[in-house]
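User: Can you predict the 3D structure of Erythromycin esterase homolog? Sequence below.
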Amino acid sequence: MEMSDSKHKPPEILDVRKLIVDNSIELNEERDLDKLIEKIGDAKYVLLGEASHGTHEYYTWRMKISKKLIEKKGFSFIAVEGDWPDCYKLNRYVKNYPDSGDSALDVLHSFNRWPTWMWANWETVALGEWLRAHNDSQSKGHKVGFYGLDVYSLWESFDEVIKYLEEKDPTTRKAALDAFNCFEPYSRGEGQEYARAARMVSLSCEDEVVNLLTKIRRHIPTHNGDPEDIMNVRQNAQVIVNAERYYRAMVTAGPKSWNIRDRHMVHTLENLMEFHGAEAKGIIWEHNTHIGDARATDMADDGTVNVGQIINEEHKPEEVFSVGFGSYQGTVIAGREWGDVMQVMRIPEAVKHSWEYELHKLEAKDRIVFMTESMKEHLGEREFGHRAIGVVYRPQYEHFGNYVPSKIPYRYNAFIYLDETSALHPLHTKPDGNQMPETFPFGV
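Assistant: Sure. Here are the predicted structure tokens for Erythromycin esterase homolog:
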């Protein structure tokens, strides 16, 4: 620890850094994760964060943790901050369903929603191929799944529902077409046209999509088919309902659309747990702003909730374990505006006395920090600026809006600090240009 000039530092800074050292271990190689796996214990929900959507090391260390959880503790699935229809394609591949693709590269290369780099990257290809190899040695009921939790895939979910019902249930297909036709006057974008129209003329497709979901829930269980295929169509119908709610809410001020989105992700997660049975365990990959408990940040000031908060509120403390991630400097993949061409950007050094700055001052070593009772007692009420980089990033302005005031020991159960990180490796050279709705100041 950097203590040689201690006589020039205020006592509170020395105390913070000593406390962190006393409650952390250095992270140099994969076996150093064993202490983290031990701390996770018998948790059923393990939430693995990231400080950006474009950092190589966040993906690779989450993969290493996930492999250990799957091999040592029997976790059932990985659920990510991605679209359900796209991620279900990778789920089919890793479980070796018929006609599911020749490789994870082929499957992921078809992901074309901006920001494409979030899942269409070589790091996720490696995860997909590892899951496929692991699952090849497992019985049908023990294959590990890969699913998307997000709410954005309105049109893609419509396509999947209509395609399924065309073959399995022509009667219910009429309800799907009625709902689809309600949206048809608006472009197949991200829902902004529908949202604006809903606000200006008070129209709504709510009745049509709720009717569709009701009929699917009533009729689908009678179909003679693959249980996971049935779960897939039910989930796509749920996406349609919540996407309609999300887009109507996004044109209003306040946290309503964010809360709809995160509650949808929790609902999806609970559906996955139910589908995988009483002993199910789930690994969740999302941005820190989703998995770190919102009650320990300024998000709580305006009533914003998130996945981490809801899961912690609904389950026992020993059932939930969240791990935040962050770094001091490096490079990242992002765009300078919505729909912009992806590019490698330089992440500047963290601002003075931020959480990342204090960790950097501990000899600039990678480490795992455990949020023990001692950390909560002595550091729990202190707020640190904690960096959050979204899919839209302007490094020159990051000091003015990319730090979330956080009570770190209450936001996470552990934190993985990586002193310098690098940009991940996208499969596409540029996105397709589709616009994605702004959901939060950090674009996460």
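Residues 1-7, 431-443 have pLDDT under 50 and may be disordered. The longest strand covers residues 320-334.
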